[in-house]
From TrEMBL:
The keyword Hydrolase applies. One of its GO terms (biological process) is proteolysis. This is CAAX amino terminal protease self-immunity. Keywords: Hydrolase, Membrane, Protease, Transmembrane, Transmembrane helix. Residues 131-220 form the CAAX prenyl protease 2/Lysostaphin resistance protein A-like domain.
Length: 266
């Protein structure tokens, strides 16, 4: 019975995460239609503002669900603190791992030419002004927090009550990968790999903060590149960028392994 309840709760959290943005968009669209009927034209709302509203609403819903259950919100989502010394390697890993994926991508014939820095979408053409701020807030801060709270803090924690850890981790990671499908299988595979890492770190640190830091830094890197692609000649500086990325990646991995072993020995 407890296993069935855990599975049902996991599914309900996923549905809240999946359908809240859709419902939010429908409500906002309905409001705009109503105002247009009375000849009041509201300023056009950015997609990223909608995303910010949806992310905030998801967190509010989770908060009230846990409050009704009389659970401590911070403890339930495993938003436990980590030291600044431990946090820095996670940020460095998040900033460098995208370029590592690009290197691996170009080493595998099946993926070659599928998703590289040079063909990344140019966000600068569609985003400007204050919307740039909304873009980075939505993609680099709120989205990673909400996704980690949902998939690691809630769903993964519940699934572990019903399945072995490896099964729970695999189920969460596969789901996480599928929802991140965009233009290629590469995005799915990279999301699955990152999710497996995040799950491991949650188990080791009993906190979703490491996952949030890596996720946020990764999203920031991707968003920054997509927005500034027209200003940077990545082809010219490809080798220096890759060298720095590899060194940063190796350094961050060594630090994370060292800190994790130190944590396990305490």
């Amino acid at each position: 019975m407890k296993k069935f309840k855990a599975i049902c709760e996991s599914v309900s959290y996923f549905f809240i995460f999946s359908f809240t943005p859709i419902i939010c968009a429908l409500i906002i669209s309905f409001i705009y239609v109503c105002f247009s009927k009375i000849n009041l034209n509201l300023p056009q709302m950015s997609t990223y503002v909608m995303e910010i509203i949806a992310c905030s609403l998801i967190m509010i819903i989770f908060y009230f669900i846990l409050k009704v259950k009389r659970h401590n919100f911070v403890d339930s989502i495993k938003l436990n603190k980590i030291t600044l010394h431990s946090a820095l390697p996670f940020i460095l890993l998040g900033l460098s791992v995208y370029f590592i994926f690009i290197i691996l991508l170009n080493c595998i014939p099946f993926f070659q030419g599928e998703d590289t820095v040079s063909n990344t979408n140019d966000l600068h053409k569609s985003v400007n002004g204050i919307n740039v701020v909304f873009l980075f807030v939505a993609k680099s801060i709120l989205a990673p927090i909400v996704e980690e709270v949902t998939f690691r803090g809630l769903i993964y924690s519940k699934l572990k009550l019903a399945f072995p850890i490896w099964v729970s981790s695999l189920l969460v990671s596969l789901t996480f990968g599928v929802i991140h499908f965009s233009s290629s299988i590469f995005t799915v595979l990279s999301a699955i790999l990152l999710s497996l890492i995040f799950n491991y770190l949650v188990d080791k640190y009993n906190s979703i903060v490491p996952g949030i830091l890596i996720h946020s830094a990764y999203n920031f890197t991707v968003t920054f590149i997509r927005y500034n692609i027209r200003y940077f000649d990545f082809a010219t500086y490809e080798i220096p960028i890759m060298v720095v990325s590899i060194l940063t990646f190796i350094f961050s991995i060594i630090c994370i392994i060292f800190n994790t072993k130190k944590l396990s020995s305490n």
